[in-house]
């Protein structure tokens, strides 16, 4: 029976050692799992961040390419517009040259017609005057014939001289007229050319302003796309971090609960082992008490023998038998009392040991449960603190991103405002320079006209000729030769 108890106790001790080793192995496996999980989380996070970085670089490259293509298209459009404006100016110059030649030709043809009509009319009047003078002189018979011939010749010479003067005056008037009309035409065409240049400049500036607005619109659109991508990437990173933290916390709680269950099971096994080992320890203590009782009995027996010998030496022989009987009874009574005391001690020891064992196990269970609950509370508090710190970090990163986006938007708006102000200054400067150039050209033309003998007022008067004011309209510039208001026209009978 004792051998079976010893074997059972040894088996329980081996199981306890095996459970302890198993606990250490589980803890080691948990720590290895934590390290492996952190490495996996870190690798996944780095992979996502690298993916976001590549995506952002690709996004920025695509936006830069789109913006460069837009600027390239703007340059091509401005080149085409500049070429078109140059063609318009060249076409206007050719039209002006053609119209000038045509106007000069038409005025010249009209003046030639006026001169021919004048010559024909002059010949008719000369012939009529000659016949009239002959009739008048032939009626005056009192005047000698020679005198009449001299008078007729004198009248002829005076008429020819007058006609020559009138012809010279007409030629001079025609020359002044055609020069004046050509100066008016040139001045008018110069003003029209200035208007065309102003219109082309306004078209160019409007085109540049439209392109600038398009570029600014694209920059704002790119800013919004980049902002959306940054927010989306940050959200994915934050979501991954939150999922990893939740997974880690769930694993920690699961392992903690497993640990608590394992500790409780180990405590139950320990108490069971203590309960099974209790009879052996109590038996050993009982044997020790009984051994002490036997030694005490031997000591008292020796003392009784010495006391008996002393008493018998002083006791008469006839009383010794009675004394020995009394001594035996006293010895038996004392040994019985001593045995009862030791039995009571054994009983008290057994009862006290059982009570102490039950009480210590309950206290140990309470302390273990309290310790496990404390550890669980500490873990929960640590996880809550970790979650709070992670949330604060996410909020801080979100605010930092919002600040960066806001600053970048402000810089972009400042850049666009600066470019718009620069464009407005450039536009005002180019308009001013164009206005000064036109004013100087017109002033130089008027000064040249004054030097040629034409007043500015005469150049600004409405022309008697009809010539086109609009581009490509030459049909209205045909000058009527039949109905002319020119000062060089001389109707019949004007002399």
UniProtKB/TrEMBL annotation:
<keyword id="KW-0067">ATP-binding</keyword>
<protein>
    <recommendedName>
        <fullName>non-specific serine/threonine protein kinase</fullName>
        <ecNumber>2.7.11.1</ecNumber>
    </recommendedName>
</protein>
<feature type="compositionally biased region" description="Polar residues">
    <location>
        <begin position="474"/>
        <end position="495"/>
    </location>
</feature>
<feature type="compositionally biased region" description="Basic and acidic residues">
    <location>
        <begin position="133"/>
        <end position="149"/>
    </location>
</feature>
<feature type="region of interest" description="Disordered">
    <location>
        <begin position="133"/>
        <end position="162"/>
    </location>
</feature>
<feature type="region of interest" description="Disordered">
    <location>
        <begin position="464"/>
        <end position="495"/>
    </location>
</feature>
<keyword id="KW-0723">Serine/threonine-protein kinase</keyword>
<dbReference type="GO" id="GO:0005524">
    <property type="term" value="F:ATP binding"/>
</dbReference>
<keyword id="KW-0547">Nucleotide-binding</keyword>
<dbReference type="GO" id="GO:0005737">
    <property type="term" value="C:cytoplasm"/>
</dbReference>
<feature type="region of interest" description="Disordered">
    <location>
        <begin position="85"/>
        <end position="104"/>
    </location>
</feature>
<dbReference type="InterPro" id="IPR051234">
    <property type="entry name" value="TAO_STE20_kinase"/>
</dbReference>
<keyword id="KW-0418">Kinase</keyword>
<dbReference type="GO" id="GO:0004674">
    <property type="term" value="F:protein serine/threonine kinase activity"/>
</dbReference>
<keyword id="KW-0808">Transferase</keyword>
């Amino acid at each position: 029976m004792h051998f079976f108890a010893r074997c059972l106790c040894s088996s329980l001790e081996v199981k306890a050692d095996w459970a302890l080793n198993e606990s250490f192995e589980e803890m080691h496996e948990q720590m290895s799992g934590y390290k492996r999980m952190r490495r996996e989380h870190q690798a996944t996070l780095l992979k996502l961040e690298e993916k976001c970085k590549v995506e952002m670089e690709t996004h920025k490259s695509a936006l830069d390419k789109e913006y460069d293509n837009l600027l390239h298209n703007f340059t091509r459009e401005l080149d085409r517009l500049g070429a078109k404006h140059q063609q318009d100016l060249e076409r206007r110059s050719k039209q002006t040259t053609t119209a000038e030649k045509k106007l000069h030709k038409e005025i010249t043809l009209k003046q030639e017609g006026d001169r021919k009509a004048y010559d024909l009319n002059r010949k008719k009047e000369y012939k009529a005057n000659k016949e009239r003078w002959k009739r008048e002189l032939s009626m005056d018979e009192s005047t000698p014939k020679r005198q009449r011939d001299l008078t007729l010749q004198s009248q002829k010479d005076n008429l020819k001289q007058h006609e020559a003067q009138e012809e010279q005056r007409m030629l001079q008037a025609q020359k002044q007229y055609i020069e004046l009309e050509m100066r008016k035409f040139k001045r008018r065409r110069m003003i029209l050319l200035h208007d065309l240049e102003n219109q082309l400049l306004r078209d160019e500036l409007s085109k540049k302003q439209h392109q600038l607005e398009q570029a600014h619109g694209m920059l704002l659109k790119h800013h919004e796309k980049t902002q959306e991508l940054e927010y989306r990437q940050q959200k994915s990173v934050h979501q991954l971090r939150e999922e990893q933290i939740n997974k880690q916390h769930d694993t920690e709680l699961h392992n903690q609960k497993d640990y608590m269950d394992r500790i409780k099971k180990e405590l139950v096994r320990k108490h069971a082992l203590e309960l099974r080992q209790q009879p052996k320890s109590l038996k050993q203590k009982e044997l020790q008490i009984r051994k002490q009782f036997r030694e005490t009995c031997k000591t008292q027996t020796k003392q009784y023998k010495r006391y008996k010998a002393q008493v018998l030496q002083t006791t008469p022989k006839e009383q010794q038998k009675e004394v020995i009987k009394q001594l035996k009874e006293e010895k038996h009574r004392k040994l019985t009392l001593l045995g009862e005391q030791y039995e009571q001690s054994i009983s008290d020891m057994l009862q006290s040991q059982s009570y102490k064992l039950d009480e210590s196990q309950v206290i140990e269970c309470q302390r273990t449960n309290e310790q496990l609950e404390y550890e669980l509370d500490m873990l929960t508090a640590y996880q809550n603190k970790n979650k709070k710190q992670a949330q604060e970090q996410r909020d801080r990163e979100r605010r930092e991103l919002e600040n960066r986006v806001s600053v970048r938007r402000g810089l972009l708006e400042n850049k666009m405002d600066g470019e718009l102000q620069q464009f407005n200054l450039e536009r005002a400067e180019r308009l001013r320079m164009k206005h000064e150039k036109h004013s100087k050209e017109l002033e130089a033309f008027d000064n040249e006209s004054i030097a040629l003998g034409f007043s500015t007022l005469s150049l600004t008067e409405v022309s008697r000729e009809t010539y086109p004011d609009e581009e490509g309209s030459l049909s209205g510039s045909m000058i009527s030769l039949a109905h002319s208001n020119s000062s060089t026209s001389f109707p019949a009978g004007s002399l």
